[in-house]
């Protein structure tokens, strides 16, 4: 799997944010994703596997723990691909921000029309499933 394919999934990007500049045990990552997104441990393991197979993560076994860290060189390759679009500046960001606003407005209107007392979107984990696979 290509690095950019792996980065297309928000949960995987969140894993990279959690790991950032350090080495983190799989259990710590799973706990953070469970608390933030309601993602199960097997779901977390699947995302870690995809990131590992794409070359974005390296894993090191220490006893029964699996420690993950970002492969900086591989991530730099992906970042370099994005850099080619810097020449466009903020031209592409503004339409995306407008789209995000319109989507939020539509969700808000749907909640009002259905009488959703909770007033919130479904948990992110309910919207992000790894059942479809990498």
Automatic annotation (TrEMBL):
<dbReference type="InterPro" id="IPR036388">
    <property type="entry name" value="WH-like_DNA-bd_sf"/>
</dbReference>
<protein>
    <submittedName>
        <fullName>ArsR family transcriptional regulator</fullName>
    </submittedName>
</protein>
<feature type="domain" description="HTH arsR-type">
    <location>
        <begin position="1"/>
        <end position="90"/>
    </location>
</feature>
<dbReference type="InterPro" id="IPR011991">
    <property type="entry name" value="ArsR-like_HTH"/>
</dbReference>
<keyword id="KW-0804">Transcription</keyword>
<dbReference type="InterPro" id="IPR036390">
    <property type="entry name" value="WH_DNA-bd_sf"/>
</dbReference>
<dbReference type="InterPro" id="IPR051081">
    <property type="entry name" value="HTH_MetalResp_TranReg"/>
</dbReference>
<dbReference type="GO" id="GO:0003677">
    <property type="term" value="F:DNA binding"/>
</dbReference>
<dbReference type="GO" id="GO:0003700">
    <property type="term" value="F:DNA-binding transcription factor activity"/>
</dbReference>
<keyword id="KW-0805">Transcription regulation</keyword>
<feature type="region of interest" description="Disordered">
    <location>
        <begin position="104"/>
        <end position="134"/>
    </location>
</feature>
<dbReference type="Pfam" id="PF12840">
    <property type="entry name" value="HTH_20"/>
</dbReference>
<keyword id="KW-0238">DNA-binding</keyword>
<dbReference type="InterPro" id="IPR001845">
    <property type="entry name" value="HTH_ArsR_DNA-bd_dom"/>
</dbReference>
<feature type="compositionally biased region" description="Low complexity">
    <location>
        <begin position="115"/>
        <end position="128"/>
    </location>
</feature>
